[in-house]
């Protein structure tokens, strides 16, 4: 929806879980907008900073030497109070009082609810860019940070393989993704993990997994086994530890890779995805658009309404999951 506001000032913020590549997105928002005659303002600490008026003017060099860095130079926050419509009005006023009528939000599905709220309840033009390692939004094939997070998991698998092979052991590696198994499935295939357990393919019987692990060691000559466990089904950790130890008589360890998956230098894929999405977001602002989010489908950058984006469930790639099961053991 276009609100036909025409002034050439825009603000950008990062919200929710940080993701590697967010700085590449901020950099393109700034440089592409300035190249089109816009003044660009940064908002520190996500929606919390918007409420607290942590708004500052950015310069061309504000993003120098940041394209390769993880995290977000604008900082981020989780701000539960932002669910209150009164807060949306106050937050928007902090921008509008400065003559800033346009806002780009880089964040996940939670942040997109904030995009919708600001679009609906205020005079701002608001556009969203999907920045989250989870890749858990159905309207887009990928999100900024997902590729880098998977490469961090793959590196961990490589390092773990060295040590568990040295001891003929089994490792349960828990990975992030909230209720989505995309980090686990893609990393399992690329990293060569023997098993991957995800929320979308439940229930899983720990006894069946344990017996398969035993056969791998005793009949297929395996000298190590890695099981990727998505955090959305991490309640299976203890039953798996118990059943596999019982079935194999071997040491079974568990580690949660945790916040390592949120940092690190973004991959080329995430930096280019971030730049392409950020360009589209600025172009939408330049056309006076609002309440829309940028996505990627079949390699093409596109945009849709934030309401539509939030409605589409993330489709589970059964084919990819089945491939992971076939090629890994
Ligand atoms: P992510 O954007 O990575 O999914 P969160 O789920 O924490 O992270 O959402 C980020 C922020 O978005 C929240 O801290 C809150 O400020 C805002 N937000 C989340 N849900 C809503 C909502 N329903 N309405 C308005 N703002 C919301
Ligand atoms: O949404 C990104 C994410 O890293 C999830 O994968 C993870 O479950 C969650 O954030 C952790 O939230 P927090 O940073 O608030 O601990």
Tell me, rounded to a whole number, the average pLDDT: 96
Name the helicity range: 40-55%
What is the chain-wise order of helices and strands?
EHEHEHEHEHEHEHEHEHEEHH
Work out the number of β strands.
11
User: Could you say which overall geometry the principal axes of the C-alpha atoms support?
Assistant: elongated
Structure description:
This protein is α/β, with parallel strands linked by helices. The model has no long low-confidence stretch (mean pLDDT 96). The protein has helices at 22-35, 46-51, 85-96, 109-121, 146-166, 182-191, 206-219, 237-248, 268-286, 306-311, 318-328, and strands at 9-14, 39-43, 55-57, 102-107, 125-130, 170-175, 195-197, 225-230, 252-256, 292-297, 300-305. The protein has 11 helices and 11 strands. Strand 7, helix 7 (206-219) and strand 8 (225-230) form a beta-alpha-beta unit. 50% of the residues are buried. The protein has 2 domains: 9-145 and 266-311, Rossmann fold; 147-263, Phosphofructokinase domain (Rossmann fold, 3-Layer(aba) Sandwich). The protein starts with 8 loop residues before the first strand and ends with a helix. The strands form 2 sheets. Strands 3-2-1-4-5-10-11 form a 7-stranded mixed beta sheet, sandwiched between helices. A 4-stranded parallel beta sheet has the order 7-8-6-9, sandwiched between helices. The structure holds adenosine-5'-diphosphate (ADP) and 6-O-phosphono-beta-D-fructofuranose.
